[in-house]
């Protein structure tokens, strides 16, 4: 079933994240906090549902609409992200981060001219947040423009030493297979927050993409120490152990190209 037709929260999945919080009132603030936590742990599907629950309480919360679009993008559902952005823009036509999120959905869908137009609009609406600039960098990478570097620098400057923004920048670089640049950003994110399993996991994935198998194994093991019951990390270790010569050659080639 499409995520787009199932954005309404049906309960159940949130329980795995909230056993210790049953005594708390499950109101708008509760679900928004759970959504943000899920996002920062890389649990995009759960975050999507939590943000949907927030909108059940308060459909006027533009940040939750925008976050839903961003979660769909993270899940690779760019067409649905665009449709959901259109629905949200009917309510908030001048919301800068919503315009920026639609720009990313368009750029990743190949509509590069429209993506740039929406990115321009997000900045014209006096948008000057780290996400606005990450989104513009995303669009410019889709258009293969070198100006993207300035946008990432701007985002990191606005969120100095914020591991979350640095991690997101690394994910965008990785999406466009700029693994050497992604590696640098993920190393910075880890330096800012060595105790977060997700950063080690993402760092390991990037190292594996570059053929740095031993370093990737070390990163995965660091992640596993921090999150010992994560099936995602164990799967990553299993896949790493099955890395063949062809995959290593691709990684070496990526390093040489950078």
Give the helix/strand layout.
Elements: H1 15-18, H2 28-40, H3 44-57, H4 62-74, H5 78-91, H6 96-109, H7 112-124, H8 130-142, H9 148-158, H10 163-175, H11 179-192, H12 197-209, H13 213-226, H14 231-241, H15 245-257
Structural class: mainly alpha
Radius of gyration: 19 Å
> Helix and strand string, N-terminal first?
HHHHHHHHHHHHHHH
Shape: globular
Mean pLDDT: 90
The amount of beta strand, in percent, is under 5%
Largest sheet: none
Strand runs, count: 0
- Helix fraction bin: over 70%
Number of discrete helical segments: 15
Describe it for me?
It is a single chain. With about 260 residues, the chain is mostly helical. About 70% of the residues lie in helices and about 0% in strands. It has helices spanning about 15-20, 30-40, 45-55, 60-75, 80-90, 95-110, 110-125, 130-140, 150-160, 165-175, 180-190, 195-210, 215-225, 230-240, 245-255. The longest helix is centred in the N-terminal third of the chain and has 14 residues, at about 45-55. The model has no long low-confidence stretch (mean pLDDT about 90).
